[in-house]
Protein backbone atom coordinates (compact mmCIF):
# COMPACT_ATOMS: atom_id res chain seq x y z
CA UNK A 1 0.00 0.00 0.00
CA UNK A 2 2.86 2.32 0.81
CA UNK A 3 4.33 1.70 -2.60
CA UNK A 4 1.08 2.79 -4.24
CA UNK A 5 1.06 6.03 -2.26
CA UNK A 6 4.67 6.69 -3.14
CA UNK A 7 4.00 6.10 -6.84
CA UNK A 8 1.00 8.42 -6.78
CA UNK A 9 3.08 11.10 -5.02
CA UNK A 10 5.84 10.83 -7.62
CA UNK A 11 3.33 11.17 -10.45
CA UNK A 12 1.77 14.26 -8.87
CA UNK A 13 5.23 15.82 -8.32
CA UNK A 14 6.21 15.19 -11.92
CA UNK A 15 2.96 16.68 -13.13
CA UNK A 16 3.48 19.79 -10.98
CA UNK A 17 7.02 20.32 -12.30
CA UNK A 18 5.89 19.93 -15.91
CA UNK A 19 3.04 22.45 -15.46
CA UNK A 20 5.44 25.01 -13.87
CA UNK A 21 7.94 24.69 -16.67
CA UNK A 22 5.19 25.13 -19.30
CA UNK A 23 3.95 28.27 -17.54
CA UNK A 24 7.42 29.85 -17.54
CA UNK A 25 8.33 29.19 -21.19
CA UNK A 26 5.94 31.77 -22.78
CA UNK A 27 7.42 34.49 -20.60
CA UNK A 28 10.99 33.57 -21.60
CA UNK A 29 10.33 33.33 -25.34
CA UNK A 30 7.85 36.17 -25.75
CA UNK A 31 9.37 39.04 -27.84
CA UNK A 32 10.03 42.28 -26.03
CA UNK A 33 7.88 45.24 -26.94
CA UNK A 34 10.72 47.72 -26.32
CA UNK A 35 12.67 48.84 -29.45
CA UNK A 36 16.25 47.68 -29.75
CA UNK A 37 18.70 50.62 -30.10
CA UNK A 38 22.30 50.35 -31.13
CA UNK A 39 25.01 51.99 -29.03
CA UNK A 40 25.84 55.55 -29.95
CA UNK A 41 29.42 54.64 -30.91
CA UNK A 42 28.14 52.01 -33.36
CA UNK A 43 25.87 54.55 -35.09
CA UNK A 44 28.80 56.91 -35.53
CA UNK A 45 30.90 54.23 -37.17
CA UNK A 46 28.13 53.00 -39.48
CA UNK A 47 27.01 56.49 -40.58
CA UNK A 48 30.06 58.81 -40.48
CA UNK A 49 29.43 62.53 -41.00
CA UNK A 50 29.44 63.57 -44.66
CA UNK A 51 32.06 66.03 -45.92
CA UNK A 52 30.77 69.15 -47.68
CA UNK A 53 30.59 68.69 -51.45
CA UNK A 54 33.23 70.58 -53.45
CA UNK A 55 32.25 72.55 -56.52
CA UNK A 56 33.55 70.92 -59.70
CA UNK A 57 36.60 72.65 -61.16
CA UNK A 58 35.98 74.59 -64.34
CA UNK A 59 37.57 72.91 -67.33
CA UNK A 60 39.88 74.98 -69.48
CA UNK A 61 38.27 76.02 -72.74
CA UNK A 62 40.17 74.81 -75.79
CA UNK A 63 39.97 75.97 -79.40
CA UNK A 64 43.01 74.40 -81.03
CA UNK A 65 44.37 75.47 -84.41
CA UNK A 66 47.11 73.47 -86.16
CA UNK A 67 49.22 74.90 -88.94
CA UNK A 68 52.26 73.40 -90.69
CA UNK A 69 54.76 76.10 -91.58
CA UNK A 70 57.62 75.66 -94.06
CA UNK A 71 60.71 77.88 -93.84
CA UNK A 72 61.92 79.03 -97.28
CA UNK A 73 63.38 82.37 -96.19
CA UNK A 74 67.09 81.46 -96.61
CA UNK A 75 67.33 82.38 -92.91
CA UNK A 76 67.09 80.54 -89.63
CA UNK A 77 63.93 81.32 -87.67
CA UNK A 78 64.51 81.54 -83.91
CA UNK A 79 60.97 82.27 -82.70
CA UNK A 80 57.34 81.94 -83.81
CA UNK A 81 54.46 83.24 -81.70
CA UNK A 82 50.74 83.93 -82.19
CA UNK A 83 48.55 86.57 -80.58
CA UNK A 84 45.19 88.21 -81.18
CA UNK A 85 45.56 91.81 -82.35
CA UNK A 86 44.01 93.12 -79.13
CA UNK A 87 46.45 91.30 -76.86
CA UNK A 88 49.32 93.45 -75.60
CA UNK A 89 52.25 91.06 -76.08
CA UNK A 90 53.59 87.78 -77.42
CA UNK A 91 54.19 85.33 -74.59
CA UNK A 92 54.95 81.84 -75.97
CA UNK A 93 57.62 80.86 -78.47
CA UNK A 94 56.11 77.87 -80.29
CA UNK A 95 59.52 76.67 -81.53
CA UNK A 96 61.19 74.08 -79.29
CA UNK A 97 64.38 74.77 -81.27
CA UNK A 98 65.51 76.98 -84.16
CA UNK A 99 63.83 76.33 -87.52
CA UNK A 100 66.47 76.23 -90.25
CA UNK A 101 65.88 77.06 -93.90
CA UNK A 102 64.20 74.15 -95.69
CA UNK A 103 62.67 72.73 -92.49
CA UNK A 104 59.01 72.72 -91.42
CA UNK A 105 57.10 72.49 -88.15
CA UNK A 106 53.49 71.76 -87.15
CA UNK A 107 52.33 74.59 -84.90
CA UNK A 108 49.52 74.14 -82.34
CA UNK A 109 47.81 77.23 -80.95
CA UNK A 110 44.95 77.36 -78.42
CA UNK A 111 43.00 80.46 -79.43
CA UNK A 112 40.26 80.12 -76.77
CA UNK A 113 41.77 82.54 -74.19
CA UNK A 114 42.44 85.16 -76.87
CA UNK A 115 38.90 84.85 -78.25
CA UNK A 116 37.40 85.12 -74.77
CA UNK A 117 39.39 88.31 -74.12
CA UNK A 118 38.31 89.64 -77.52
CA UNK A 119 34.62 89.04 -76.76
CA UNK A 120 34.93 90.68 -73.34
CA UNK A 121 36.58 93.71 -74.93
CA UNK A 122 33.79 94.02 -77.49
CA UNK A 123 31.10 94.11 -74.81
CA UNK A 124 27.44 94.38 -75.90
CA UNK A 125 27.20 94.26 -79.72
CA UNK A 126 23.39 94.16 -79.96
CA UNK A 127 23.35 97.75 -81.15
CA UNK A 128 22.66 97.76 -84.89
CA UNK A 129 24.90 100.82 -85.35
CA UNK A 130 27.91 99.02 -83.88
CA UNK A 131 29.99 97.32 -86.60
CA UNK A 132 30.57 93.62 -86.09
CA UNK A 133 34.25 93.01 -85.35
CA UNK A 134 36.11 89.78 -85.98
CA UNK A 135 39.31 88.66 -84.26
CA UNK A 136 42.59 89.09 -86.10
CA UNK A 137 45.47 86.73 -85.40
CA UNK A 138 49.07 87.78 -85.97
CA UNK A 139 52.30 85.80 -86.21
CA UNK A 140 55.62 87.11 -84.93
CA UNK A 141 58.74 85.79 -86.69
CA UNK A 142 62.24 86.37 -85.30
CA UNK A 143 65.27 85.65 -87.47
CA UNK A 144 68.79 84.72 -86.43
CA UNK A 145 70.04 88.26 -87.15
CA UNK A 146 67.72 89.59 -84.42
CA UNK A 147 65.23 91.19 -86.81
CA UNK A 148 61.49 90.82 -86.17
CA UNK A 149 58.67 90.48 -88.69
CA UNK A 150 54.93 90.47 -87.93
CA UNK A 151 52.41 88.87 -90.28
CA UNK A 152 48.98 90.49 -89.89
CA UNK A 153 45.68 88.69 -90.51
CA UNK A 154 47.23 85.23 -90.31
CA UNK A 155 44.85 82.70 -91.97
CA UNK A 156 44.38 80.21 -89.12
CA UNK A 157 40.79 79.54 -90.22
CA UNK A 158 41.43 79.57 -93.97
CA UNK A 159 44.45 77.24 -94.28
CA UNK A 160 46.32 74.53 -92.43
CA UNK A 161 49.75 74.97 -94.02
CA UNK A 162 51.84 77.65 -95.67
CA UNK A 163 55.36 78.74 -96.58
CA UNK A 164 57.41 81.61 -95.16
CA UNK A 165 59.29 83.54 -97.86
CA UNK A 166 61.68 86.50 -97.70
CA UNK A 167 62.22 88.92 -100.57
CA UNK A 168 63.52 92.51 -100.71
CA UNK A 169 63.46 92.77 -96.93
CA UNK A 170 59.82 91.66 -96.77
CA UNK A 171 58.84 88.45 -94.98
CA UNK A 172 55.50 87.10 -96.17
CA UNK A 173 53.33 83.98 -96.33
CA UNK A 174 52.19 81.88 -99.28
CA UNK A 175 49.29 79.45 -98.76
CA UNK A 176 46.32 77.79 -100.48
CA UNK A 177 43.00 79.21 -99.32
CA UNK A 178 40.24 76.87 -98.14
CA UNK A 179 37.55 79.36 -99.14
CA UNK A 180 38.74 80.11 -102.69
CA UNK A 181 41.03 77.18 -103.51
CA UNK A 182 43.58 79.68 -104.90
CA UNK A 183 47.23 80.18 -103.98
CA UNK A 184 47.50 83.41 -102.01
CA UNK A 185 50.60 85.49 -101.27
CA UNK A 186 50.67 88.19 -98.58
CA UNK A 187 53.71 89.95 -100.10
CA UNK A 188 51.80 92.96 -101.46
CA UNK A 189 49.84 93.32 -98.23
CA UNK A 190 53.04 93.26 -96.17
CA UNK A 191 54.68 95.78 -98.49
CA UNK A 192 51.67 98.08 -98.10
CA UNK A 193 51.85 97.82 -94.30
CA UNK A 194 55.59 98.57 -94.29
CA UNK A 195 55.08 101.56 -96.58
CA UNK A 196 53.66 103.53 -93.65
CA UNK A 197 57.02 103.22 -91.86
CA UNK A 198 57.78 103.78 -88.17
CA UNK A 199 56.12 100.51 -87.20
CA UNK A 200 56.15 100.07 -83.44
CA UNK A 201 58.06 96.99 -82.37
CA UNK A 202 55.80 94.38 -80.75
CA UNK A 203 56.36 93.40 -77.14
CA UNK A 204 57.94 89.95 -76.87
CA UNK A 205 60.19 90.57 -73.88
CA UNK A 206 58.42 87.90 -71.78
CA UNK A 207 58.31 85.30 -74.55
CA UNK A 208 59.84 81.91 -73.72
CA UNK A 209 60.19 78.52 -75.35
CA UNK A 210 58.04 75.57 -74.23
CA UNK A 211 59.60 73.96 -71.15
CA UNK A 212 61.70 76.97 -70.20
CA UNK A 213 61.44 77.53 -66.45
CA UNK A 214 64.64 79.27 -65.39
CA UNK A 215 64.22 83.07 -65.38
CA UNK A 216 66.72 85.20 -67.24
CA UNK A 217 67.92 86.83 -64.00
CA UNK A 218 69.13 83.47 -62.64
CA UNK A 219 70.85 82.51 -65.88
CA UNK A 220 72.81 85.77 -66.11
CA UNK A 221 75.33 85.03 -63.29
CA UNK A 222 76.33 81.76 -64.95
CA UNK A 223 77.30 83.63 -68.10
CA UNK A 224 79.23 86.26 -66.15
CA UNK A 225 81.16 83.63 -64.16
CA UNK A 226 82.58 82.11 -67.35
CA UNK A 227 83.64 85.47 -68.79
CA UNK A 228 87.38 86.24 -68.65
CA UNK A 229 88.57 88.79 -66.14
CA UNK A 230 88.94 92.32 -67.40
CA UNK A 231 92.58 93.24 -68.11
CA UNK A 232 94.27 95.77 -65.86
CA UNK A 233 94.99 99.28 -66.96
CA UNK A 234 98.66 98.38 -67.55
CA UNK A 235 97.68 95.43 -69.75
CA UNK A 236 95.26 97.60 -71.74
CA UNK A 237 97.71 100.42 -72.37
CA UNK A 238 99.30 100.11 -75.83
CA UNK A 239 102.66 101.55 -76.81
CA UNK A 240 102.59 105.28 -77.32
CA UNK A 241 99.73 105.86 -74.88
CA UNK A 242 99.85 109.18 -73.05
CA UNK A 243 100.42 109.47 -69.30
CA UNK A 244 96.81 110.41 -68.57
CA UNK A 245 95.62 106.84 -69.15
CA UNK A 246 93.16 107.83 -71.90
CA UNK A 247 92.62 105.43 -74.79
CA UNK A 248 93.97 106.65 -78.16
CA UNK A 249 91.43 107.95 -80.66
CA UNK A 250 90.63 105.86 -83.76
CA UNK A 251 92.74 108.11 -86.01
CA UNK A 252 95.75 107.36 -83.81
CA UNK A 253 95.88 103.64 -84.53
CA UNK A 254 99.03 104.05 -86.67
CA UNK A 255 97.47 103.55 -90.10
CA UNK A 256 98.90 105.72 -92.83
CA UNK A 257 96.70 108.74 -93.57
CA UNK A 258 95.14 108.88 -97.02
CA UNK A 259 96.50 111.27 -99.58
CA UNK A 260 94.96 114.66 -99.57
CA UNK A 261 94.04 114.72 -95.88
CA UNK A 262 94.75 117.57 -93.55
CA UNK A 263 97.76 115.78 -92.02
CA UNK A 264 99.71 115.78 -95.30
CA UNK A 265 98.47 118.98 -96.96
CA UNK A 266 99.59 122.07 -95.11
CA UNK A 267 97.40 124.24 -97.40
CA UNK A 268 94.30 122.20 -96.51
CA UNK A 269 91.26 124.44 -96.27
CA UNK A 270 88.31 122.87 -94.42
CA UNK A 271 85.86 125.13 -96.26
CA UNK A 272 87.10 124.18 -99.72
CA UNK A 273 84.53 122.38 -101.87
CA UNK A 274 81.62 123.39 -99.65
CA UNK A 275 78.45 125.18 -100.57
CA UNK A 276 76.70 127.66 -98.34
CA UNK A 277 75.42 125.80 -95.30
CA UNK A 278 78.30 123.28 -95.21
CA UNK A 279 77.02 120.82 -97.88
CA UNK A 280 79.70 119.10 -99.98
CA UNK A 281 79.56 118.79 -103.75
What does this protein look like?
By secondary structure, this protein is of the alpha+beta class. It is 25% helix and 19% strand. The longest helix is centred in the N-terminal third of the chain and has 28 residues, at 2-29. 11% of the residues are buried. Residues 214-227, 233-242, 244-266 and 270-281 have low confidence and may be disordered.
Key phrases:
281 residues, alpha+beta, Immunoglobulin-like, 5-stranded mixed beta sheet, 3-stranded antiparallel beta sheet, 6 helices, 8 strands, 19% strand, rod-shaped
Secondary-structure map with pairings?
Layout: H1 2-29, H2 40-46, E1 64-72, E2 77-84, E3 104-110, H3 112-122, E4 137-143, E5 148-151, E6 161-167, E7 170-176, E8 183-185, H4 187-194, H5 216-226, H6 233-236
- The CATH topology assignment of the domain at 64-123 and 134-194 is Immunoglobulin-like
Residue windows where pLDDT falls under 50 for at least 5 positions: 214-227, 233-242, 244-266, 270-281
Report strand %.
15-25%
Sequence of strands across the biggest β-sheet: 3-1-6-7-8
C-alpha termini separation:
177 Å
